[in-house]
Amino acid sequence: MGLTDTLAARFDVEGHDSDVRTELIAGLTTFLAMSYIIVVNPAILSEAIQIEGYGQGEVFQMIAIATILSAAIATAVMALYANRPFGLAPGLGLNAFFAYTVVLGLGVPWQTALAAVFVEGVLFMLLTVVGAREYVIRLFPEPVKRSVGAGIGLFLLFIGFQELQIVVPDDATLVTLGGIFGNPWAILGLLGLAFTFGLWARGITGSIVIGILTTAAVGWGLTLAGVFGRGAITPETLPSAQYDISPLAGAFVDGLGQIDPLTFVLVVFTFFFVDFFDTAGTLIGVSQFGDFLDDDGDLPDMDKPLMADAVGTTAGAVLGTSTVTTYIESSTGVEEGGRTGLTALAVALLFLASLVVIPVVAAIPAYASFIALIVVGVMMLQGLVEVDWNDPAWAVSAGLTVTVMPFAYSIADGLAAGIIAYPLIKVAVGEYDEVALGQYVIAALLVVYYVLQTRGVIL
């Protein structure tokens, strides 16, 4: 029996009305669609993770390696255990929450933030093992679940606009439009963004990766041609290749000894909540493309792909990166005909192969990397169509979830606003009996937390 026959038998390719060639092409398609995270994740996390004795470029490469390895591990589990064609990697939005809210905003050491990710992953695994998914889902208000993706999208948009210097601070209005066309950084970012949106609109596979690489190439071309000096639109110096991630891997252990209990619980709660529902929503959404859902609209054996997510998150925390989640870009591979875990195995192997480009990733300017945040942010706004805006409880809860995230610069604060608002409005309209006891308890606990937090009693 040849390799092709072995793979076909292992993943029951014929039983899923597919073939090995189709599965491999689907895997390549999914990898190209989501591989931008190799550059974007370290671009975000390296702003918060600082390691003594190492420059940002070296830390950037360490995080890129952790990103690749965690994505490969999680996607391999998806392939071999769940036999589903879904790719996983550290998630956009959760990495922004890790860097900008938890570490830079709350002042939590990055090692402790990794510890929170580790605890969240272990908790996720335990709940998956005992089959508690349905109970946890019922515990959170439906409008919050439906709107959290759009809220994260707006949060990513806000960060992306700031990083491209399209939006800048203002003393009178807090933010305002920057001097874009007097700023080569912003000009290149804006042109790269327009180019990437054009590729995406035309359905070009790997449009975000192509946009990032093309924008970076233009920046370097202008620098090498002498139009701009080194350091203006490209890194002033490039670090040597950094494949040793031992200063990063295992750092979560030190973080476990630096815990402020109340803040740590909230951080773990937010990581868990967003990861849980983002993964569940993505799995259902992508499964619709492949006709994987049963007659009740559920994904059979959903606990298996959820376990892949949990294992990836736990492994990612050990390696030194933020929460791993299933990627909506997996739908591109499913559309190409991917139906089994062989597609996911191809994605995992391609991630491992990308380790050879680690020395190159630090050369990509930040304005090229952060194009991805704006493009993905726009894509995530489609979740707003699932909100019943005619229902007061839905409108207020979802509206606050979506808007508080970017305005407070925190996914956690947006989630809290929506969770607190839902029972309040339900009581106001006389529908208090439609709110579960657990929802009242969580809302009350969050109120207590924010009273103490905003009075400076806790972090």
TrEMBL record:
Q: What transmembrane ranges does the database entry give?
A: 24-44, 59-81, 88-108, 114-136, 148-168, 180-201, 208-229, 262-286, 306-328, 340-360, 367-385, 405-425, 432-452
Keywords from UniProt, A to Z, are:
Cell membrane, Membrane, Transmembrane, Transmembrane helix, Transport
GO terms for cellular component: plasma membrane
Q: Which GO terms describe its molecular function?
A: purine nucleobase transmembrane transporter activity
Q: Where in the cell is it found?
A: Cell membrane
Topology in the membrane?
Answer: Multi-pass membrane protein
Q: Where does it mainly reside?
A: membrane
Which family, according to UniProt?
Belongs to the nucleobase:cation symporter-2 (NCS2) (TC 2.A.40) family. Azg-like subfamily.
- PANTHER family annotated for this entry? XANTHINE/URACIL PERMEASE C887.17-RELATED, XANTHINE_URACIL PERMEASE C887.17-RELATED
Can you name this protein?
Xanthine/uracil/vitamin C permease
